[in-house]
Amino acid sequence: MGFIAETGSGHVLAMDGAPDERTPANGGKNLAPRPMEALLAGTGGCTAYDVVLILKRGRHDVRGCSVKLQAERAEVEPKVFTKINMHFTVTGKALPAAAVERAIAMSHEKYCSASIMLGKTAEITTSFEVLDV
Asked: Could you give the CA distance from residue 30 to residue 17 in angstroms, rounded to a whole number?
């Protein structure tokens, strides 16, 4: 159940399914992320990219951004995401919390196609912390 996707930019992404103990021939080998995990990780990357770019364009001294996503899925097929929380940790020199909050909002309201798309089925909430380095 392992798959390799080749992206439009020419990169490859490995995906795999979970092992199925009841019928091992039908399961994956747990060698790579599940496709839905890759979707969620891509969304985190999309919005973190936006946040950093927005802050840099605002001439803020941003040094890093990480985002931890926690999600819930529907109990029945299709098991779409129903709730997603994104917690951002943004590091930099004298970053105003208001600027970080605004960058996160702009990403979710205008720029991040992935989170805007997932927002059609999931309630997306955000939180953040700013670390001065």
From this structure: 6
- Specify the amino acid at residue 15: M
* Residue 62 and residue 131 in contact, taking contact as beta carbons nearer than 8 Å: no
pTM: 0.91
Residue of 72, 94, 95 lying closest to 82 (CA atoms):
72
Question: Looking at domain 34-132, what is its CATH homologous superfamily?
Answer: K homology (KH) domain (3.30.300.20)
And the tokens for 95?
């970053």
pLDDT < 50 regions, the chain:
none
What would the pLDDT profile of 21-48 be if each residue is shown by its tens digit? 887 777 889 999 999 999 999 999 999 9
The count of residues in the chain is 133
Q: Is residue 111 within 8 Å of 50, Cβ to Cβ?
A: yes
Q: Which residues in the chain are classed under CATH 3.30.300.20?
A: 34-132
Average pLDDT, the chain: 96
Torsion, Cα 102 104 109 111, to 10 degrees, reads 110
The separation between the first and the last C-alpha atoms of the chain, rounded to the nearest angstrom, is 44
